[in-house]
């Protein structure tokens, strides 16, 4: 029997349990076996390094990430804002979309809520009418950086949270994002902790889903429900992929947290992202002051900022966008923008 190594074109043809075809027997290598198992389990397989991958649904290489949790109080907004801080610190043009009617993201980045004279129509107005002029009127700059624009949330957004929306309503957010001018490099969507129209609209529009949880008794159930929601949207929106699960507010020396974290890793394996985020006072202090975590002057903030940099790297690598920016320390020139070497 002649044994040869698989060619690149045949790498993704192997399925466990099937007989090889052709005159020669192709033996899959470790990467191909792992990839086949990941696909069988529904876990996304990373694109080959030599294959350029960009998101062009919005006309440019725009990466849209939805940050969600179906359990409240786990720090979903903290993770969203940490990724925003990491992106503008790196010099990336970013749009923050606040779909949570609590408007915590909007208030933290120092933008007036939508539906007010200062806040414009906000995201609720955009979901009412996603025309280009309405989107342009709704976008607001943030004191965090000239690189950051915000579609502000409001309590009025709740009226768009229908439990069983049709495809036309679900598509409105994506329609609005297609009309962002100029197109950003990154869009981060802060979702409400429920599975209604708002969260599903976010998944409809997103390329990547970032799930957030904490090491608690109900963490496993919350993650499972969120993954099921992502999988359900993937059946009709093939571009959506789960990036993974960010475990937030971890206390390493608390036995309950160690047990729950081990349980999450045992059940969800590579979907549990590294690093996990520790419970640090600096995070609450920076949010209370309305300041990016990369600008907060403490050792704890510097530690957490580095972790958000790693999570942003993982997000960008998943889409092969921003590779040229890897390791860059450029920041925005706005009132709150960070400069070179400010980490």
From TrEMBL:
Residues 328-343 have a biased composition (Gly residues). It comes from Nakamurella alba. It holds the Pfam family AAA_31. PANTHER family: P-LOOP CONTAINING NUCLEOSIDE TRIPHOSPHATE HYDROLASE, PARA FAMILY PROTEIN CT_582. This is AAA family ATPase. Residues 1-31, 319-343 are annotated as: Disordered. Residues 66-233 form the AAA domain. InterPro entries: AAA_dom, DNA_Partitioning_ATPase, P-loop_NTPase.
């Amino acid at each position: 029997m002649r044994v040869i190594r698989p060619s690149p074109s045949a790498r993704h043809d192997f399925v466990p349990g099937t007989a090889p075809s052709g005159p020669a027997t192709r033996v899959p290598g470790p990467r191909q076996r792992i990839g086949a198992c990941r696909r069988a389990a529904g876990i996304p397989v990373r694109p080959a390094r030599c294959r350029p991958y960009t998101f062009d649904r919005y006309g440019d290489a725009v990466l849209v990430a939805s940050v969600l949790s179906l359990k409240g109080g786990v720090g979903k907004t903290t993770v969203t804002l940490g990724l925003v801080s990491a992106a503008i610190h790196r010099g990336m043009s970013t749009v923050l979309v606040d779909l949570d009617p609590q408007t915590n993201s909007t208030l933290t980045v120092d933008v007036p809520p939508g539906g007010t004279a200062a806040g414009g129509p906000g995201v609720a107005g955009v979901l009412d009418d996603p025309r280009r002029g309405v989107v342009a009127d709704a976008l607001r700059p943030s004191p965090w950086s000239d690189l950051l624009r915000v579609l502000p949330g409001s309590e009025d957004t709740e009226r768009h949270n229908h439990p069983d929306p049709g495809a036309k309503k679900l598509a409105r957010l994506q329609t609005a994002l297609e009309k962002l001018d100029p197109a950003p490099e990154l869009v981060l969507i802060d979702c409400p902790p429920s599975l209604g129209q708002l969260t599903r609209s976010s998944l409809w529009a997103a390329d990547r889903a970032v799930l957030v949880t904490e090491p608690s008794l109900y963490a496993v159930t919350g993650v499972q429900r969120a993954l099921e929601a992502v999988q359900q949207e993937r059946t009709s929106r093939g571009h959506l992929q789960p990036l993974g699960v960010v475990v937030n507010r971890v206390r390493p020396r608390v036995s309950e947290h160690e047990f729950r974290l081990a349980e999450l890793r045992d059940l969800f394996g590579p979907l549990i992202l590294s690093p996990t985020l520790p419970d640090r006072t600096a995070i609450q202090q920076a949010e209370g002051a309305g300041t990016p975590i990369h600008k907060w002057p403490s050792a704890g903030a510097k530690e957490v900022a580095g972790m958000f940099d790693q999570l942003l790297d993982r997000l960008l690598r998943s889409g092969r966008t921003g590779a040229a920016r890897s390791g860059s320390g450029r920041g925005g020139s706005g009132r709150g923008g960070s400069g070179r070497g400010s980490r």
